[in-house]
Amino acid sequence: MDSRAFEQALAFLCTRDGCTGVEATGKAGDFGADVIAYSPNGRKVVLQAKRYGPTHKVGSQDMQRFGGTCFTYHQAAIAAVVTTSTFTRHAMDYATKAGIRLVDVNALAAWASRTGPAPWH
Fold it and tell me: Domain Restriction endonuclease type IV Mrr, which positions (predicted)?
């Protein structure tokens, strides 16, 4: 699955789980928003998709770039980075302080199989 297909898969999961206005926006100039949707209770959700291999962790620079746009530019109520990998400790620390939710490979698998929560829960 390439990056675009991964973004489309995340958009599908959002739609499947009751979001409305779902749009896979991932393209150059998207200011970090790969999927924008509205949760079942109407909150704006902005997802950044990171399709990385198992040895390529999402780092703090990735988080800082997204953190600089998700709330101010996109006005997200809920911002999350979803990856096929994991996060570095610095990325996790930044996300905690910035209020960004993290969905690693295990949480993604749980969301996809309906054994775990969607990022907006």
Answer: 1-111
Instruction: Give helix then strand counts, H and E, for the chain.
Output: 4, 5
Tell me: pLDDT of 28 over 70. no
Domain span at residue 91? Answer: 3-112
Number of domains in the chain: 1
- Compute the distance between CA of residue 46 and CA of residue 103 in angstroms, rounded to an integer: 13
Residue 19's identity, in one-letter code, is C
71, 61, 58: which is closest to 100 by C-alpha?
Answer: 71
* DSSP H helices in 50-115: 60-67, 89-98, 105-112
Residues facing 107 on adjacent strands:
none
What pLDDT, in 10s, does the model give residues 58-106? Answer: 999 999 999 989 999 999 999 999 999 999 999 999 999 999 999 999 9
